[in-house]
Amino acid sequence: MSETTTAAVPWNPKRSTPGALARLLDNKAFLVFLCLLPAVGLLMVFLTYPLGLGIWLAFTDTHIGRGGVFVGFENFESLWYDQVFWGAVFYTLFYTTVATVLKFGLGLWLALLLNENVPFKSLIRAIILMPWIVPTVLSAIAFWWMFDAQFSIISYVLVDVLGWRDTYIDFLGTPWHARWSLVFANVWRGIPFVAISLLAGLQTISPSLYEAALLDGASSWQRFTKITAPLLMPILSVVLTFSVLFTFTDFQLVYAITRGGPINSTHLMATLAFQRGIPGGQLGEGAAIAVSMIPFLVLATLFSYFALSRRKWQQGGNDE
Amino acid sequence: MASVEIRAVRKSFGGTPILHGVDLDIADGEFCVLVGPSGCGKSTLLRMIAGLENISGGDIVIGGKVVNDVPPKDRDIAMVFQNYALYPHMTVRENMAFSLRLAKAPAEVMEAETSRASRILGLDPLLDRYPRQLSGGQRQRVAMGRAIVRHPQVFLFDEPLSNLDAKLRVQMRGEIKDLHQRLRTTTVYVTHDQIEAMTMADKIVVMQAGKVEQIGTPLELYDRPANLFVAGFIGSPSMNFLPGHVQDGGFRPDGLDGAAASLPLPTQTGAGEPVIYGIRPEHLRLDEAGIPVTVQLVEPTGSETMVMARLGETPLVGAFRERISARVGDTLRIMPDPALAHLFSKGTGMRLSA
What we know:
heterodimer, A: mainly alpha, disordered C terminus, B: alpha+beta, Rossmann fold, CATH 2.40.50.140, 8 helices, transmembrane (chain A), MetI-like_sf (chain A), membrane (chain A)
């Protein structure tokens, strides 16, 4: 057998002087720049450019197929006197507010139920998630069918099965019916997100806190208001922000079910912007409507950032 | 303050029995420790006293009143949880005053009670901090403060020290005992650590697999363990057990023969049946006339020397005051102190010697 352990072979590594590239890569500022480049590039191409282009278009009179010129605030001026635009603003706010309140009310209720020891918990959880898994347009078509003036199953049940009404309901033919129908569809679609997120939040609350509160003499309502609610608030605020943003910028449901009708009563700002910009060809005006959403969104984000941000008790350390 | 009586209490989860009829009397002002290995039902029993678990059978009596169907908040007890269960969104002050606030106590009562508790526990500088900003020992103290504020009839502790490091555990052990001596509130304390049980308890209840193995003062359990389980559980390092039989007025370990391998008996009992001879490591001494054991490991700790050895095939641990320079494989001659040896029946595990 050969010797496996021999004395180390003498070897004096030559200290080489680093090349120009190596020295450049050792430069911290250059390295930071280099590492940031891909992220910044992606942001520029996919975020900043479309957003910038949209904002620029809002200040031009561009039509599809015809380049426009800068017109200053002309688009916004005309929107100011546009009843349809203000109708869309009103409905967007109505839609967002009502749908968010309902989604949170029902979502929290579902989450609280699922946090108890109910039988078939995981099955129920899976069922609850379904509305969220189905593609929006698919569920929109289902709702369209359910809200149909002639074939609606809801009308059928109310009129022919239960006999509570004499006439079929024209869900999508009258403004307020259509508005509420869309809110209903949005709530149906949005509940899973709220319920599952809040359930995750509830599950982070230690059961022993409830036991301690029980021994401290808290009733179940007090346990909810004094333990559950404050401890759920951090995740609630995040979910609320997301939910408001998603609902405010909703497009698919409304466009697939009503296309903004009847008589423009269910136009959201997003659908109106698309309607004016693409089928209507008025890119500039469509962009102006879209840009008008920005202040609302910034406001909603700031609200959640400041009013609902991390509380003092969540922070560690001795930061008094 | 009140006494606690547990009468034939049973508990099953689903069809699985957890507690098989536990009887226990805790006198007013007593510090009672429930100790046993994980899963023996000690925490379940504590939670049943607290009212957090319902009772499958038997009665729990606090202060002369059966509380089986009394809700937890009306049992007049306070509990310290293993993870402290401090409300993270409340300051120390708010945590301690929470029960009073729920009871709609006047502001001056809340103030007086919280400052009394914080004075007792040295929490004054921390009153406006949140639990996150506290160390483990401080959180432990706040949890105790929350209990003190309520002037409960009974304190319940559920493994309160197991989340602390070793040094802090010793310190908090002292603080809890000191607190009990000052307040003299009846206390039920659950732990799996027999040293905690030995150092703190007025009365120890050793439990295993849902049954009470023995109830007694710490030294009673140490001196006269009722069975093999208690003998092995109480004391550290644990007792040596040598299987064998009684012959000619002495104990002969299995697998060894010759007169040299006879050990003196504590009492003349157990002839004719297989027995277990129990001797604590600290009750062995070196003796030229003793039985030979083979050294396997020597651990000097300074104050004493631990020797792991074998008697035939049976492992044996000895703790000696003298310094031993034996090496692995050497033979030592050791002799048990017959007055401090124990004899158990091999079949039933019960104590034979008086």
